[in-house]
Amino acid sequence: MLIIMFIDYIVLGDSTRSVDENPNGLFGIIEIPKINLYYPVFSQLTEELLKVSPCKFYGDTPSTNGNICIAGHNYDNSLFFSKISSLSPNDEISIFDNNGIKYVYSVYKVYEVPETDLSPVLNYDTNERILTLVTCNNFNSNRIIVKAKQKKLS
Hints:
The chain is mostly beta strands. 14% of the residues lie in helices and 38% in strands. The chain has an eight-stranded mixed beta sheet with strand order 2-1-5-6-8-7-4-3.
């Protein structure tokens, strides 16, 4: 799978894995109301898990600064991240952790990169809480990227 090739380097080199490993292998739940998306997210990425649901492949937890990266297959409008390219700035993405705490992110950028470009994962402000969604563009070999910043809790 092409998305695995993009991520292999990151997974092998990831030194920011969460110490809050859940025994059921789940990182939490992702919800994007604009595109009617609601899925559990695995806390690790393997080719087999990626066939089942989106997977976190980089980052720690929503309660810490950093870049949480989640990959999901693009099943052409049927499943997972097929509609994320339709997101716009200020659209909301929610992550629910394993304790049920809801973290809301606001989209600030949607774009594509070549499959070998790791900058969406590695380049981020370490003082912020960023969420990066990654999926394949099925019409070329690019990756569709959605970047979002966590909103301040009120």
